């Protein structure tokens, strides 16, 4: 019996060590950023392409107030309610002391400067595909924005989802940096894929999720139940969206549909961002959306 107990204890220790190693937060080697200098002007484009203000500005903010990234917006889900943190340039409440490497680790690996896992309510599963130079440029732009001392609101997440270490296992399953649509032809579709799959993180809302919260990439952009369980985000594959590429690009610029309706809900904030992009980028997004596989989701 004593020998049996020793074996059980040994197996438990080995299993615990294996879990600890497999679920440890990942970081980017600092050497990968060697020679990269931040360009705030380019970073502004990344800021709008990534929709940063849509989540991190105060609810109800408008105009220049949307550049005050004090956080606080809540995102209800089946796992609890997550709150966007302060990412202003404030050195205490915000990310004013973050290096470009800190931002890279957050966006590409979901890892905080303290070495903790971030919850995937922060769409690092999409940002993982972002170019390092773009993140470095975004960091330079964020440092030019106003500081705000509002403390970040803690997430309202209960057991067992409040065990951050377990997110390491979730990342093993769902944090990938490969493209969802691997084969695209030409620079325009490549740019559109980058804007949709990486910076714009469109799939985070328009793609259904499984029971663990991972994206069902086999139903890419086919529409999904909203995370709070109320209503749906529509599908935007050619199976359900019969707009032309020109219609899509116009919608991303003006917010008007081909039927002369206007954008509403959360998509209004998205259009505020895409309207700041170049016409070439909006055309690239439209071309990509029209080129993805036709998937209809009831």
From TrEMBL:
- Provide this UniProt record's keywords sorted from A to Z: Heme, Iron, Metal-binding, Oxidoreductase
Q: Where is the Cytochrome c domain?
A: 38-146, 187-293
Q: Which domain of life is it from?
A: Bacteria
InterPro entries, per this entry? Answer: Cyt_c-like_dom, Cyt_c-like_dom_sf, Cytochrome_c-type_DH
Q: EC number(s) per UniProt? A: 1.17.2.1
Q: Does the keyword Metal-binding apply?
A: yes
What top-tier enzyme class does this entry carry? oxidoreductase
Query: What are the GO MF terms of this UniProt record?
Result: electron transfer activity; heme binding; metal ion binding; oxidoreductase activity
> By its UniProt entry, which Pfam families does this protein fall under?
Cytochrom_C
Q: What is this protein called?
A: Nicotinate dehydrogenase subunit B
Record the organism.
Pseudoruegeria aquimaris
State the organism's lineage. Bacteria, Pseudomonadati, Pseudomonadota, Alphaproteobacteria, Rhodobacterales
């Amino acid at each position: 019996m004593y020998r049996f107990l020793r074996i059980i204890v040994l197996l438990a220790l080995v299993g615990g060590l294996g879990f600890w190693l497999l679920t440890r937060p990942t970081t980017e080697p600092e050497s990968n950023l060697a020679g990269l200098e931040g360009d705030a002007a380019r970073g502004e484009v990344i800021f709008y392409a990534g929709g940063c203000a849509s989540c991190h500005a105060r609810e109800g903010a408008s105009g220049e107030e949307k550049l005050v990234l004090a956080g606080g917006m809540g995102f209800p889900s089946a796992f609890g309610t997550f709150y966007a943190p302060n990412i202003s340039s404030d050195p205490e409440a915000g990310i004013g002391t973050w290096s470009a490497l800190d931002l890279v680790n957050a966006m590409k690996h979901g890892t905080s400067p303290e070495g903790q896992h971030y919850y995937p309510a922060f769409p690092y599963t999409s940002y993982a595909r972002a170019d390092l130079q773009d993140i470095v440029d975004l960091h330079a732009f964020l440092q030019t924005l106003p500081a705000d001392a509002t403390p970040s609101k803690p997430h309202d997440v209960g057991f067992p989802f409040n065990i951050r270490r377990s997110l390491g296992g979730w990342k093993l399953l769902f944090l990938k940096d490969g493209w969802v649509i691997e084969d695209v032809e030409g620079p325009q579709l490549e740019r559109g894929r980058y804007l949709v799959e990486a910076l714009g993180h469109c799939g985070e809302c328009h793609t259904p999720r499984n029971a663990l919260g991972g994206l069902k990439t086999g139903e890419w952009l086919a529409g999904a139940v909203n995370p709070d369980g109320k209503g749906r985000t529509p599908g935007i594959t050619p199976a359900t969206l019969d707009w032309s590429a020109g219609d899509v690009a116009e919608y991303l610029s003006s917010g008007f549909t081909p039927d002369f309706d206007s954008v509403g809900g959360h998509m209004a904030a998205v259009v505020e961002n895409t309207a700041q992009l170049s016409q070439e980028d909006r055309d690239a997004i439209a071309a990509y959306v029209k080129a993805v596989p036709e998937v209809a989701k009831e």
